[in-house]
Each structure stands twice: as C-alpha cells, then as structure tokens.
Amino acid sequence: MSEAVIGLIGVIVGAAITVGFESWKDWRTRKRNARYLAIRLVSFIDRYVQGCVEVTGDSGSPMESDEDYHPEDYSPAEYPVFDVHSLDVDWKSIDPNLMYDVLSFPNQIDAANRIIAEEARCNPAEIEINLERRYQYTILGLTISKVADKLRREYQIPQRDTEAYNPIEYLIKYRDDLGAEKKRLSNTWENGPFGTKKDDNINEDKI
C-alpha cells in the first residue's frame, strides 16, 4: 500500500473521529440542556398547579370564624400566571411532543377564561360564576400536572414530596365535588326550584 493511500486513510479516519467526537459532544450538551429545561419547567408547573389549588379552594368568601372577618375587605384568589416564555432555555432540546404540550397550554387557559366570562355574561349569580371559576382552574391544574409527570419520567426528575400535602389529590377531589355541584345547579335551573320543567313561555307577572 502506497504512502499516499495510507495518508489518505489517516486523513479520513482522523476526520471521522473528529466528526464523531463533535457529534457526541453536541449530543451530551443537548441532553444536559434538555434536563436543565425539564427541571425548570417542572418547578414552574408545580408553582402554577399550587396557584390553581388556591383558586379552587376559594369558595367566594373568607372564613367567617375569623375574628378579623370583614366582608368588604375580601378579594378572590388571583389566577396563576403561566408565563412560560419568560424561561430563558433551549426549547429545541426537549421532546417535541412535550414542548407542544407546554407551549400550547396557554390556549387552554384562554379557553377556560372564556368559559368563565361566558358564565358571568349569561348568569350573573355570583355563586355560579365562582363555581365555574373554581372548576375550570381545577381542570387546568390537573391537565398541566400530567405534563410535569411526563417530564419527570422522561428526564429522571424526582417526584414531588407528597407526604404532608398532595395538591393533585386535592384537585381531583374538588374536580369531582365541583363537577357534581355544577350538574346539580344545572338540573335545578332546567327543572325549576320545585322539580318541574320551567316553561319559558310563562309570564311570571300573571302567576
């Protein structure tokens, strides 16, 4: 084998090793960036879920047993903010499906807020507006918590400590309770207060 051929083989092997090393280094960097992003996202989502718990637990009035209870000072729990674009991370480093789940979630928040606004427009009764508000944020909290679970599994992130407090169990319980109450109120509205179907054609002034 001539020296020229040996030299060419050496160049090719050297180039292959260089390319392979750079590819491996790039893969390692992307993997490290993906796990960093996943950790940031899980922490971000956990805080958002806790915000949903606070909205869900807001019955519309403070505890009247409180000595400092003043109805005029009461203000409802504020909606949690899902400003995920504030995270300075490499979004392309994680699984595209997970990225979509996270980045499309604001659309679900907008849809929930539209439902709440529509309830307020069609039915100004405060109890039903607050019920819808609590129910929608229960669903939002449970929905995005599933994304956090996927991130934890995919990137080997420890599960949240739920020994003393589990917000997901709390949200599941309220989802069921609030859903049942929504159904009860809907049936009451459809059937009238005395269990008979309301007739929209009845002129109540003549009754």
Please describe what this structure looks like:
By secondary structure, this protein is mostly helical. The chain has one domain (3-59, 88-189). The chain contains 5 helices and no strands. It has helices at residues 3-56, 96-103, 105-122, 126-154, 167-191. Helix 1 (3-56) runs antiparallel to helix 4 (126-154), helix 3 (105-122) runs antiparallel to helix 4 and helix 4 packs antiparallel against helix 5 (167-191). The longest helix has 54 residues, at 3-56.
Give the helix/strand layout.
Elements (H helix, E strand, L loop, with lengths): L2 H54 L39 H8 L1 H18 L3 H29 L12 H25 L16
Helix pairs in contact: 1-4, 1-5, 3-4, 4-5
Helix-strand pattern: HHHHH
Mean pLDDT: 80
Give me the Rg, rounded. Answer: 27 Å
Sheet-strand content, in percent, reads under 5%
Oligomer: single chain
What are the main properties of this structure?
elongated; disordered C terminus; mainly alpha; 207 residues; 5 helices; 0% strand
In a nutshell, what does this entry contain?
The protein is an all-alpha fold.
